[in-house]
Amino acid sequence: MRVLHRTRPYEKVQGSANELYEKWNSKVKKDIYKADLSTYKKNIRSIVKEFDELAINDIVKPRVGVVGEILVKFHPLANNNIVELLEKEGAEAVVPDLLGFGHYCAYNSVQKEKYLGGSHKSTTISNIVIKALEYYQKPMIEALKKSERFDTPESIEKLGEYAEPIVSLCNQTGEGWFLTGEMMELIHSGVNNIVCTQPFGCLPNHVVGKGVIKEIRRRYPLSNIVAVDYDPGASEVNQLNRIRLMLSSAIKNLEIDN
Question: What class, spelled out in words, does domain 62-98+147-257 have in CATH?
């Protein structure tokens, strides 16, 4: 999705990015049963190369990061199709990878041993899991680095460094410090506009998401962050208005920069 979201808002031929995505989605689904590492690496390189070569318009749009509770962040039905909404409103959605949450879950054991009396055995197992995830992530990162259009994800250790001055890494309930780390990663990569999606009444998300916005704004005055509650009883119009208000500031800031 990283390469799709980066190119679709700028495509010269309407629907070409989705067509390329469907082509590779279909192929990867078939190839996954082969469990062949060389095929996996070849597919990664080819996906990045073809999206890197997709014809796009030379225009600038505000980039908007989407973070929050894992289900609401990734599931279109849970977030009222926020990626589609942002693109219709003239922005580019930047959604951190799902794999990052796997890194976060494993890395928490390291912090538990360091600060909370967790076992060394759990830390050892978690470090092995992180190394395994990084091993399979490496071909993607290498391909993205060689591309002209795409950013690479930061390591989980780097996200911890970003988050620690603002929230303790012992804050591990739900998305915990990882949510703060993702917002900081976006800001450091030049994405100052962020929508923090959260289920209504989700206390952990309010602490590490909504609760840190004021401090992030103090440290990074250009940050433009809005927290949006998603719930069956929540007003979709209110959600839309909050996002549009954030986008109006994003467009103004973009005009100033240019």
Answer: alpha beta
**Domain chopping of the chain, boundaries:** 1-59, 62-98+147-257
Q: In terms of Cα–Cα distance, which of 111, 87, 85, 97 is closest to 171?
A: 111
- The residue ranking higher by pLDDT, 251 or 95, is 95
Closest CA to 196 of 150, 187, 88, 87: 187
User: How many CA atoms lie within 13 Å of 179's alpha carbon, on the beta-carbon side?
Assistant: 29
Instruction: HSE, CB side, 13 Å, CA atoms: give it for residue 148.
Output: 8
Q: Which amino acid is at 229?
A: D
Which tops the pLDDT comparison, 97 or 205? 97
pLDDT at 234: 67
This prediction's pTM: 0.89
Alpha-carbon gap, residue 170 to 193, rounded angstroms: 27
E strand segments, the chain? 63-68, 92-94, 193-199, 224-230
